Structure formats: structure tokens, C-alpha cells
């Protein structure tokens, strides 16, 4: 094995142990939680190694970087998640490789994703991104909408050809009432997810938790955790 492969295998084992113990502590089955490895700033060669090591879900947050990386890994059976703020002029590109867009936060984006998905004959899974620190009717600094906007977006996705409403996503807020309270933030997200499922029963995916707080996310009930740093290492700059 190459040094990098050994390093990634060791890191993956540690993350796997963290997820497994968090599941055990929460009385959840390990299969209830899917690991998504966030590969932003790292090369396609790392994605390839991760695939060899059993990873099947990867995430990226910038189209300029993700598009060539996904193309270089097109032969691998990977599910690609897009988790970054998405401009409508990037939608056609993102739809060509992403299976799931986790950062849906405005109706204009839904319209644009739907048109691109139909054009490509693809079905794109959509998560609505919640910003727990956003004012009612507003959006968060790092994308996402305030919770009062969930239903409008959920209905828009439900009614949009080529799109599938999969659930909710959040990033633990750095400001506001939930700053530093990841567990409470993720529990709040779960409440929104339960309410949303009343009208949209198939939308059962809840994406929460990163390297620093995946245990809180698993304890709260997240179905997907998005881990970058703990698998790949500290990124050279904020990605
Ligand atoms: C970068 C990123 C992650 C991973 O963060 P780490 O702290 O490196 O694990 C998760 N979610 C989103 C939306 C990200 O942009």
C-alpha cells in the first residue's frame, strides 16, 4: 500500500469507529447512518483510493473543482453529493455529475435544477438546507433558509419534474441561539424533518454532522454525516 492509502485507511477506520460507537450509544443500528466523505480540495487520486477502501458517497462544494474530479472518477460507482452554495449558472454542470444536491435553498434554484435534470434525463435528489441562525424569511450566511421556508421549498421540489425530495440538511450554526450547541441544533433539525415527513413521507434523509460534531448528529438521529478533515486531513485553507 502507498503511504497515502495507509493514511486514508487508518483515518477511515477511526471515523468508522466513531460512527459505530455513536450509533451504539444512541441505540441505533450502524446501517442507519451513511458516511459521506467530503473530498473538497483533495485530488481525484484520493477519491479513487477512498473508493478502493469502500467509500461509496463523496461530497464536493464547488463546481469548478468538482466537475473535473467527478469526470476523472466517472468509472467508479460513487454517489456524488453537492453540498455548497449553488449559483444557477452552475446548475447545468452540477446536474451532469451530482446525484444529490444537499444545498437547495430557494425556489429559483429548484426551477433551474429541474430544467437541467429534465434536459439530461436525470433524477436529482434534493435536500433542503436549513440555516438555524437565519431570521424568518431570510437565508443564512453559508446558504440555507430559515425553517419557516421549508414547506414552500418542499412543495416546489415535489412538484418539479426530474427532482426527488430526499430530506433536510444543515451545518451547525456559528452564530445565533444554537452557536456551540450542536446537539440541540441537530435535534431541532430532526423536529423539522419529522414535520416535513407528514406531508412528504419519502423525504427521510437527514444530513448533519461533520468531523467535529458527527457524534452529536448521530445521537440526534441523522441518517447521513459529512466528514472531510477526519478522513483526508486538514485542508490547506477553508474550503
Ligand atoms: C467541508 C464541509 C464538510 C466537512 O467538514 P469537515 O469539518 O472537514 O469534516 C461538511 N459539510 C459541508 C457543507 C462542508 O462544506
Q: Could you explain how this protein is built, in words?
A:
It comes from Streptomyces albipurpureus. Belongs to the pyridoxal phosphate-binding protein YggS/PROSC family. This is Pyridoxal phosphate homeostasis protein. The protein is an alpha/beta fold and 239 residues long. The chain has a single domain (3-232), classed as Alpha-Beta Barrel (TIM Barrel). The chain has 9 helices and 8 strands. Helix 6 (150-158) links the parallel strand 5 and strand 6. Helix 1 packs parallel to helix 8, helix 4 packs across helix 5 and helix 7 crosses helix 8 (214-220). The mean pLDDT is 96. Residues 38, 40, 61, 83, 171, 210-212, 226-230, 239 line the site of pyridoxal-5'-phosphate (PLP).
What features would you highlight for this structure?
single chain, 239 residues, alpha/beta, TIM Barrel, 8-stranded parallel β-sheet, globular, binds pyridoxal-5'-phosphate, PLP-binding_barrel, pyridoxal phosphate
Amino acid at each position: 500500500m502507498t503511504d497515502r492509502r495507509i493514511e486514508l485507511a487508518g483515518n477511515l477506520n477511526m471515523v468508522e469507529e466513531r460512527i459505530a460507537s455513536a450509533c451504539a450509544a444512541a441505540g441505533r443500528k450502524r446501517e442507519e447512518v451513511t458516511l459521506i466523505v467530503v473530498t473538497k480540495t483533495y485530488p481525484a487520486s484520493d477519491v479513487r483510493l477512498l473508493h478502493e477502501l469502500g467509500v461509496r458517497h463523496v461530497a464536493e462544494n464547488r463546481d469548478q473543482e468538482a466537475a473535473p474530479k467527478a469526470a476523472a472518477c466517472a468509472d467508479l460507482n460513487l454517489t456524488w453529493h453537492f453540498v455548497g452554495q449553488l449559483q444557477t449558472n452552475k446548475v447545468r454542470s452540477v446536474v451532469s455529475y451530482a446525484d444529490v444536491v444537499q444545498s437547495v435553498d430557494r425556489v429559483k434554484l429548484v426551477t433551474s435544477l429541474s430544467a437541467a435534470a429534465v434536459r439530461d434525463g436525470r433524477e436529482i435528489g434534493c435536500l433542503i438546507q436549513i440555516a438555524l441562525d437565519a431570521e424568518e424569511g431570510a437565508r443564512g450566511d453559508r446558504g440555507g433558509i430559515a425553517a419557516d421556508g421549508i414547506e414552500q421549498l418542499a412543495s416546489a421540489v415535489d412538484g418539479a419534474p426530474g427532482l426527488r425530495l430526499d430530506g433536510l440538511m444543515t451545518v451547525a450554526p456559528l452564530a445565533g441561539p444554537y452557536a456551540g450547541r450542536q446537539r440541540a441544533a441537530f435535534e431541532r433539525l430532526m423536529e423539522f424533518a419529522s414535520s416535513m415527513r407528514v406531508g412528504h413521507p419519502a423525504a427521510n434523509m437527514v444530513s448533519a454532522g461533520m468531523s467535529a460534531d458527527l457524534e452529536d448528529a448521530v445521537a440526534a438521529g441523522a441518517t447521513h454525516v459529512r466528514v472531510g478533515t477526519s478522513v483526508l486531513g486538514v485542508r490547506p485553507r477553508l474550503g
